[in-house]
Specification:
By secondary structure, the protein is α/β, with parallel strands linked by helices. The chain contains 29 helices and 29 strands.
């Protein structure tokens, strides 16, 4: 009889307790607050390097699971770097009117704080012009100069008119000046102009004579009319020139200060010169409306354009960093296309959508320019064109504002094309590692722009330094959110809980969100009269969280208790074993035993995995079945092919199954079925197997052990029940106290093994040599029976058909005529 105690674990192997008795503090209040992050040195160094390097393309991708502190630490470190680099100059940006191309506003940059001054000074200058220009144009000096021009025009025009009338009198006409222009009037015989009534009473014959003379006269006076027209043009040009000289004098006087203060930048100087010339060209717009036009609102609007004309001289203070002492840090939580690149806003005027350069609004890229932009990669990819806009901005080192209509390839209304703004920025993307891998593999631009990856781990070493840091983290968090401080026993319990969720005695979980939840809930369970949170409060929080999420687990345990779910936890059976699975319900996962059976019969189909046949198994589970097939083939089929077929299945399991942690369980039940050796039903099994028979580690070991223990407890502990686990999983054990107590009392047992042979000896109570001999004997008998059948068929002159692979309804799978070619390929894979 095999002594299995050598594989049994001691109670102290089942959990790594936390003892802080040697540490000099009673509560977290006695500790210093934690500054920084715990156990993420690699990620912290990578991020610090990426934030400080000045080369193009060294933006940072922060990879890690949510809850590891990646976002809060990123914000903290970025702000720290932004403060340390405050000596770096950042820019203000303004948009101004483009006098040469109104649809293309000009972007001007200034040192921090100067943009606001520029806006104020430009608009104050325009206000002064609006105030002073009417005064200048109504001044005595201007009136004298304009009167001289008018008098000269009147004198010259009068002389031309006299010459014209002398010529017209010879033809019987005289010309008179009216508001509508020159009109010819026929003369009486005495040389005086004919009155209107007299003209109307002419006979038809006289009327025709005068009409013909008038037409002939108009043909002959073109020279005089051209002289008058030329004189009128000279008159207008003279007045315009007077206005231009006056406007030039006024504009130069007021603009000189702007040029002196801001003209050192060539682009700003060019804008100020264009502004000055535009003021001179439109100096009449600054004049007050004439008195006769004031009564007509339409003429007044035409004169002053209802103030809209003056809008061109306004300044859109696009980015104002005057109040910034550090480099800008922007965390954009809604990175839509427009929220990144800015927006051109429109307003409805009389049913038309209009816009202008004053309606340009900045995006996150503008606000973070010169500093840092933090984005969540999932949020970024949830908005169309956002990623493309970010890539383009980083590639071109500029921010281009345009409407999405252009992105879609059509334009529904006229729009602006603002001057792109130079971009100097460090972008930090926060996401998971899978997204990083996909982007790195398929997006060449991503590889060029995000050369730094800060990878946040999900766990860190459980050493003295990190345990104290975790205690200091609890202290900091309690103060930040106003929780009670935790006493030493409560801290010990939190440390153990952290190792439990890390699934490692030697590690602590970096999923701080889960730790924080326990802090909140433990304080909620704390008695109002207690000054500090105790270990009992933390235990209540852990148990309360389990209770709130364990309805499904309790329902399954009820099914075990009432016998609906069949399971044997005592005795021995051939071709039957208890495997262990992990199930999840939201954030809560738990273990559940599952009865596995194997049936062996003559044939060459090898191992038939019923879950695979009905497409209930995943690829990893299928891989595990193929691996154990390789192990069996190498151990028992080197001399002759194995001429047996075995079907295996998890009984009463109707959902999808994946993972290879049951591969050793499947091997044990197959060998039991082939050799007809009974297996102990009171020992449940988990563990992955290699093709060489090594037992490999699996996940969820704590949940699996506890799940089987709970079922045994429901159906009755006999003192023999236990679980068989890989030895490499011993370091992952952080079991519940009631399980540890049961092991200490000898009513429950946990065994750890390294090789499948050890597992077979524990489960059968037989030495491995005897087990191997029984398997080989059964295979020889099967092979002999097949050989005799073939000899008999040959003697009778018949050919025995090889049995068809067992699939379809017989094995709980598909119809046998469903994709026969695929079935044949699969059956070939199953052969041992």
């Amino acid at each position: 009889m095999i002594d299995i105690k050598k594989w049994e674990l001691r109670p102290e192997d089942l959990k790594s307790g936390c003892d802080l008795s040697d540490y000099n503090f009673n509560t977290t209040k006695d500790l210093d607050p934690l500054r920084g992050i715990i156990g993420q040195n690699r990620a912290a160094e990578a991020m610090s390097f990426g934030l400080n390097i000045k080369k193009k393309g060294y933006n940072v991708y922060v990879a890690g699971l949510s809850g590891t502190g990646r976002t809060s630490y990123t914000k903290s470190l970025v702000q720290k770097v932004a403060t340390a680099k405050r000596e770096k100059s950042i820019k203000d940006w303004v948009y101004v009117y483009n006098f040469n191309s109104p649809d293309e506003p000009i972007a001007l940059s200034f040192s921090s704080g100067i943009g606001k001054n520029f806006k104020k000074d430009v608009e104050l200058t325009v206000e002064k012009l609006v105030e002073e220009v009417p005064k200048i144009f109504s001044s005595r000096e201007y009136e004298i100069r304009s009167a001289e021009i008018v008098q000269r025009y009147e004198r010259l025009s009068k002389n031309i008119l006299m010459e014209l009338n002398e010529f017209a009198r010879t033809k019987g006409f005289v010309f008179q000046q009216t508001n509508q222009g020159l009109f010819s009037i026929p003369l009486r015989p005495d040389g005086t102009p004919m009155a209107d009534e007299e003209y109307k009473n002419l006979t038809e014959e006289d009327y025709e004579i005068i009409k013909k003379k008038s037409i002939q006269l108009n043909k002959e006076i073109n020279d005089y009319l051209n002289r008058i027209k030329s004189l009128e043009e000279q008159f207008r040009e003279s007045l315009d020139e007077l206005d231009r000289r006056t406007g030039d004098s006024i504009a130069s006087f007021f603009m000189e200060v702007l040029v002196e203060d801001y003209g050192k930048d060539e682009k700003v100087l060019s804008y100020l010169n264009d502004m000055k010339h535009d003021i001179i060209d439109n100096i009449n717009k600054f004049k007050e409306p004439k008195s006769q036009e004031l009564a007509n609102p339409f003429l007044m609007m035409q004169q002053r354009d209802d103030g809209r004309f003056l809008m061109r001289y306004q300044v859109n203070l696009f980015i104002d960093n005057s109040d910034k002492t550090d480099l800008p840090v922007v965390n954009e939580i809604n990175p839509t296309y427009y929220n990144l690149t800015g927006m051109i806003e429109y307003k409805n005027e009389m049913g038309l959508m209009t816009t202008n350069f004053m309606q340009l609004k900045p995006g996150a890229l503008h606000r973070a320019n010169g500093g840092f932009l933090i984005l969540d990669v999932k949020d970024l990819f949830s908005h169309p064109f956002a990623w493309e806009a970010l890539r383009r901005a980083l590639r071109t080192d500029s921010i281009t504002m345009e409407t999405l209509n252009k992105q879609y390839g059509y334009i529904v209304t006229s729009t602006l094309k603002p001057d792109p703004i130079e971009l100097d920025i460090k972008v930090i993307l926060i996401g998971d590692y899978m997204t990083y891998s996909l982007l790195y593999a398929y997006d060449e631009e991503f590889r060029k722009q995000f050369r730094i990856m800060a990878d946040f781990d999900v766990e860190f070493k459980r050493n003295e330094e990190n345990v104290i840091k975790l205690a200091r983290f609890i202290r900091s968090h309690c103060e930040e959110v106003g929780l009670k401080h935790f006493d030493k026993g409560a801290v010990e319990m939190v440390v153990e809980y952290s190792s439990r969720i890390a699934e490692d005695k030697q590690k602590l979980s970096a999923r701080f969100n889960q730790v924080v939840e326990i802090l909140y809930e433990a304080e909620a369970y704390s008695d109002e009269n207690n000054e500090y949170v105790t270990a009992a409060d933390v235990m209540k929080a852990i148990e309360g969280k389990k209770y709130r999420n364990s309805k499904y687990e309790e329902k399954l345990n009820e099914l075990f208790e009432e016998g609906t779910l069949l399971i044997d936890i005592d005795g021995e059976k051939i071709g039957q074993i208890n495997g262990l699975t992990v199930m999840g319900s939201g954030e809560y996962s738990f273990g559940k035993p599952a009865r596995m059976t194997a049936s062996t019969y003559k044939g060459k189909a090898g191992i038939i995995n019923i879950e695979r046949e009905v497409r209930h198994s995943g690829s990893i589970h299928d891989k595990g079945v193929l691996i154990l097939s390789g192990y069996l083939g190498e151990k028992y089929g080197k001399e002759k092919p194995i001429s047996l077929t075995t079907s295996i299945t998890f009984e009463q399991t109707y959902s999808h199954i994946d993972g290879d942690s049951a591969s050793s369980t499947e091997l044990y039940v197959i060998i039991s079925s082939i050799a007809e050796i009974p297996i102990k039903q009171y020992i449940a099994v988990t563990g992955s197997i290699s093709q060489k028979g090594e037992i490999q580690p699996i996940g969820g070991v704590n949940e699996k052990i506890e799940g089987f223990f709970d079922v045994c407890k429901i159906k009755g502990l006999t003192g023999r029940q236990g679980v068989l686990i890989p030895k490499t999983n011993v370091k992952n054990l952080m079991l519940r106290q009631d399980v540890i107590d049961a092991v200490r009392e000898g009513v429950f047992h946990i065994y750890s093994i390294e090789h499948v042979d050890e597992g077979l000896e524990i489960l059968t109570g037989l030495p491995i040599e005897e087990i191997d001999e029984r398997v080989s004997k059964r295979l020889r008998e099967s092979d002999d029976e097949e050989g005799k059948a073939c000899e008999k068929a040959a003697a009778e002159g018949t050919v025995q058909q090889e049995p068809a692979p067992q699939t379809g309804i017989e094995q709980g799978g598909e119809d046998e005529d469903d994709n026969n070619e695929e079935d044949e390929d699969e059956n070939e894979e199953r052969k041992l």
